Amino acid sequence: MSPTFFGMKQIQLLSHCGIPVHQQHGSLDDNVPPLHSRRLSQLMSQKGCPSEYIELPGKGHWFKSVMTTQNLLGFYDKILANQSTAKPLPRSFSIVTANPGTMGSKGGIIVDQLTSPGLFGKIKASYDEDARIWRLLTSNIHRLHFSTSAPHELSRSELMIDGNRLKILPDIPLSGQWLVSCSDEWLKTQRHGRRLGGLDAILDTHGRLVVLTPSETLFLATQISRNLFQYFGADTEVIGPDQPSRTSGGNKIVLSLGPFNHPSSAAAQSESLRIVEGNGLVVRDVHGRFTTYSFTQGLGAIFLRPGRGGTLELVIWGFDNLGLHSAARLVPMLTGVGQPDFVIVGKDCSWKGIAGVHALGFFDNSWNTPERSVVF
């Protein structure tokens, strides 16, 4: 394992401190070697937040009772028994997140958005005993709020955020850096919750995944559906563009082939990345500048866009079969693996792999493509 891998884990470990963690790992796991969990347990102990680590003799990566072992059930019982006992907030704690859409509350703080997608967001919270005030130092945090379901003293206090003193009162700007607001208008147009994250965010669906496909890509749609079931046990509904769906609230995977606008079930189109008939695949950056990839052999793309009712759509498009199949290979089949929000592939991807892509990157909170988050 590389130093970079452990360096990233050490950064993320800061979020684990103060949270009960139970680890169990099969000693015969040949998919994820036990060394990973042993090292994680060691690193947590070194950070002063030890975990409970149990290695299960003779067990592999998966077995029938993996989620109901006696040790794990005992851990659940212990945590639930202590739910009624309110614990004092640690005087110092940290939050590190790569995707706010997958995190909950810590110390009553919930991160809503990062400033730059694809980079860690960090908060260091500490209580100043002399000044009797909480101090928050943030890095790459664009928006946060305080939990109302489990209020803490921090959410009821006067705060110092990045050197700015504020009280929790609405619509008070602070030196142009922070604004306290009770408005939820931003939720209508900006990415939040399960719309955040890379391509694998499509897996966070509240209902069956709907695979929308024309007849000429039905075989590929069926293959994607089979893979999702094999790797995740996911239930999918494969339908044509003119067929009504029996699923409500589920994310969609949209397939399309050829130099025309892809079928859509969403009211909102992605303004940053679209197929323009007679022109090519067009990417617009946050400044309104356009980069066009002309229709050529092997051109394809896979990207996220907003769907109706807070859902996501994953578009898989190819100018020809080569481009379509190259893009479809990037449908997420692993969790916990860093992925961008969009990838534009070319014919060289068939033998160069990632080195053959035309562009890849992240959308910002408004579905734009900022320069610092895109590689052309």
How does this structure look, described?
- The protein is of the alpha+beta class.
- 18% of the residues lie in helices and 29% in strands.
- The chain has six helices and 22 strands.
- Strands 13-12-14-19-18-20-21-22 form an eight-stranded mixed sheet, covered by helices on one side. A five-stranded mixed sheet has the order 3-5-6-8-9.
- It is globular, with a radius of gyration of 23 Å.
- The model is unreliable at 1-8 and 263-269 (pLDDT under 50).
How is this structure best summarized?
Helices cover 18% and strands 29% of the residues.
Task: Name its key features.
376 residues; 8-stranded mixed sheet; 5-stranded mixed sheet; globular; disordered N terminus
Report the mean per-residue pLDDT as an integer: 83
Low-confidence stretches: 1-8, 263-269
Largest sheet: 8 strands, mixed
Q: What structural class should be given to the helix and strand makeup? A: alpha+beta
Q: What string, H for helix and E for strand, traces the elements in order?
A: HEHEHEEEEEEEEEEHEEEEEEEHEHEE
Provide the gyration radius in Å. 23 Å
Strands of the biggest beta sheet: in what spatial order? Answer: 13-12-14-19-18-20-21-22
Distance between the termini: 30 Å
Envelope shape: globular
Count of β-strands: 22
Estimate what percentage of residues fall within beta strands.
25-35%
Helical amount? 10-25%
Q: How many separate helices?
A: 6
